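Running log. JK asked me to keep both predictions on one page so they can be read side by side. First protein, sequence followed by its tokens:
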Amino acid sequence: MTINDSNPVATPDGIRLTVAEPAGTLLLSWHEAVRQLDSGQFDDSLADGLQMIIQLQWAAVHGWFVTTNEQKALMWRWIIACLFLLEQAEANGTVEVANEDGGTDLAVIYSGKNGGMAVYPASERMSLATHIEGIAIQKYGAVTGLERAILLYEGMAEVPPAGGPLRLSQWGREALKMLHDDFIRMVNTEGMPAEPTAH
């Protein structure tokens, strides 16, 4: 079942989903909806994730769901990663990449001044969390840093002047390109960074 198939509707008590098996409806709590975004539930269908974001925003506007700064940052991180991936997929396409399970995953192609790489929703969110939230928190402390990170995320997106769907702002696009180009340059000169060791 995809979210689009389930006709998600924000209600005062959560997001109501219509389900086929068993026939009826399912009520998803606000916190569970945010958790699903963060856990990658919608990484294979960004459109479904955007539908969930729309319902969460609708609920916040109506006062049904009061988001914490952590939840706001998580939702904005998800939105910015999604907008970047959609933009790159339109510009450069997608590619099937072998995974550790012996199958393949669909990745978006990023192509920049230093080369190209496959990018995925989870890795984009992790990179944003590290380079936006992590640096802001390190510099300004947990509370103020997270507030500043949210403002940065908001500045990375815009509604076109003539109307239409949310998109990356010019500043947001350039910041993400710089982040990816710097990573590719590092890989080209120093090789892949060592994977963290589990302790």
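And the second, directly underneath as requested:
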Amino acid sequence: MAVIDINTRLQYASTFFLGLGLAGILSLLGAYLVETLYTAPPCMLCLYQRACYGAVCFLCAAGWLANRTKRRILPSVTLAGLCAMVLSFGTILALYHVGVENRWWTGTGGCTAEGTKALTVAELKEAILSAPMVSCSDVTWSLFGLSLATWNLFWSAFLSLFSLYIVRTWTKR
């Protein structure tokens, strides 16, 4: 196996962070477009999964900047490892969401309707109007018979495994 010099590794790191950051941005944009174009409001688990992509975008921006300014591979490896961890968490969250949709297990309290402490009719009306509209067990949009949570599971798992592979490659001597 050929030895890769530090400049080549740093170039790979820049490309990795730009590519993974773009994948995160496109994931968020795709979810937002499905939400607005198909009027498919997100549930709480959908919003949590989006937070993972937002965190990855932030970490990729930090990794790209650290790679450009520090010119060392260690910050890049650390931030790529954090990206892999966040994406792994997102994959687990997506798997949980798919399980809730398929009724393999029940969702959390935020996925279902909750009781209210309303005392008057006006308070009750306000509580009903401000309550979340979508249950995590409802499939609001699907493509080729698979829910968006299922597609997110595949995508998040791919990005997670790819990130883990990159970290392993960078740390191999």
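Observation for JK regarding the second prediction: Residues 10 and 73 are 6 Å apart (CA to CA).
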